[in-house]
Amino acid sequence: MKVRISLFFALFVGLFQIGFGQEVLVSSDGQRGYLLGPGDIVTGKVLNEPQFDFVATIDEDGKFQVPFFDKSVFAKCRTENELRGDVTQLLAKYLRTPQVSVTVTERKSRPPASIYGEVKTPQTVDLRRKATLLELLSFAGGVTEDAGGTVQVFRTQPLMCSEDGEEDPLATNSEDRLEVPSRIYSLSNIRQGRAEANPVIYPGDVIVVLKAAPIYIMGEVIQPVGMRLPEGGLSLAQALAMVGGVRREAKTKDVKIYRLKANSKDRETISVNYDNIKKGQQKDVMLEPYDIIEVDKSKKSIQKIIFETITGVGRQAAASMTGSITNRILY
Question: Which label site among 101, 155, 207, 304 has the fewest CB atoms less than 10 Å from its CB?
Answer without folding.
Answer: 304
